[in-house]
Amino acid sequence: MDQRPAIVLLSGGLDSTTTLAIALDQGYDVHALSFDYGQRHSVELESARRVAKTMGVTKHFVATIDLRMFGGSALTDSITVPHHDRVEELQSAIPVTYVPARNTIFLSFALAWAETLAASDIFIGVNALDYSGYPDCRPEYIKAYEIMANLATKAGVEGKQRLQIHTPLMEMTKSQIITRGASLGVDYRLTHSCYDPDKDGKPCGTCDSCLLRQKGFQEAGLSDPTATNGVL
Amino acid sequence: MDQRPAIVLLSGGLDSTTTLAIALDQGYDVHALSFDYGQRHSVELESARRVAKTMGVTKHFVATIDLRMFGGSALTDSITVPHHDRVEELQSAIPVTYVPARNTIFLSFALAWAETLAASDIFIGVNALDYSGYPDCRPEYIKAYEIMANLATKAGVEGKQRLQIHTPLMEMTKSQIITRGASLGVDYRLTHSCYDPDKDGKPCGTCDSCLLRQKGFQEAGLSDPTATNGVL
């Protein structure tokens, strides 16, 4: 039997790489989609390419979209990325690294590709537990997106296709995500999490994303191969 | 009092130009957004620039996104644009000129810009009456998008902003749209409707979009300045 095609949004980070491993494990024919959106940590695209190549996806597209023209985020604008000494300092409010409508834009490109492939399945590595500050990572948002997506498409209108947005990490802690990925054989050396790497791509170790990664590995009782070995 | 900012999606065609005129007439501080998405009729972007300049918008962005990588439409792929002798030949099924998820992608960029501007209003010139073949032009789709958008954004989550998608043309026939635009002083010479123009940008006169435009002007009892004077 032919494998069902699925689109997996792949940033090259820990969460999306684990999500990709889960989609492969579930037997999907994985089409990975990444974005060059003007992010200051564009080194993550190198990770995305390594992950896609190493883990064996059918096709990997990198779409170029310039979200810098709208600004409004520390990831795309001149706003400074916050740094902290300890993970406990992270605040519960929506952080300045939030990029307006980013997941909505990413999912919309995935929807376009899904429709041309006649795929019914889109995977996104959003997570509401360990880092719930982003509005477009919450289950109610994903559910509303799914309803909209099924009204947006030709196949949805013709009743041929019931599009589903899969969020396998939604209710997992970072350490659970790492444990799951490790059990599926994910090589986390391939991934990149830092929002504010130096010019050689080396993680800063003190941004929100670095701190959550460290905490996750600690709680999973594993060592972070990137942190110990440096960037590949 | 300061004018409220609004985003208006502007293709450079008859519908979006009329929508822009309506938003200006309603007193909005208009920010126009167009897309270079690899469309074969990219001459419409020249129209969009002319319209934005002539009608006096506050800002006009043209976002470059390459939807050709996904294909699946006569507007972005090597599929032939259909031509007809008469408007009655147009079919009610979803036409090959449908671009998968196009309006969803366009609205998502508008949402990003709206959020950074703290704008609560997005205008899109979709129309369900005269040309109802596109799934992402229907009122139920727009309603679902609006619900999703209010869950996607920081302002939505914080309860500060109630985002609204305005579709002033939704229930209008093409001739009603033209009559309304003419009453607002729209110069339709600025606009471009053809899906399949020749290399000089001249409309073919026989694609779905040309035929509906002709029918609209006829029924409105007006002459099409573009058709008589050629492309500007």
UniProtKB/TrEMBL annotation, chains A, B:
Positions with a binding annotation for Zn(2+): 194, 204, 207, 210
InterPro entries in the cross-refs: QueC (IPR018317), Rossmann-like_a/b/a_fold (IPR014729)
Family of this protein: Belongs to the QueC family.
GO molecular function annotation: ligase activity
CDD domains: QueC-like
Keywords: ATP-binding, Ligase, Metal-binding, Nucleotide-binding, Queuosine biosynthesis, Zinc
Cofactor(s) this protein requires: Zn(2+)
Function: Catalyzes the ATP-dependent conversion of 7-carboxy-7-deazaguanine (CDG) to 7-cyano-7-deazaguanine (preQ(0)).
UniProt pathway: Purine metabolism; 7-cyano-7-deazaguanine biosynthesis
EC number: 6.3.4.20
Reactions catalysed according to its record: 7-carboxy-7-carbaguanine + NH4(+) + 2 ATP = 7-cyano-7-carbaguanine + 2 AMP + 2 diphosphate + 2 H(+)
Gene designation per UniProt: queC
Cofactor binding summary note: Binds 1 zinc ion per subunit.
Protein name: 7-cyano-7-deazaguanine synthase
Residues the entry annotates as binding ATP: 10-20
Short name of one Pfam family: QueC
Domain of life per record: Bacteria
Top EC group: ligase
Gene3D superfamilies the UniProt entry points to: HUPs (3.40.50.620)
PANTHER family, A to Z: 7-CYANO-7-DEAZAGUANINE SYNTHASE (PTHR42914)
Organism this protein belongs to: Ferrimicrobium acidiphilum
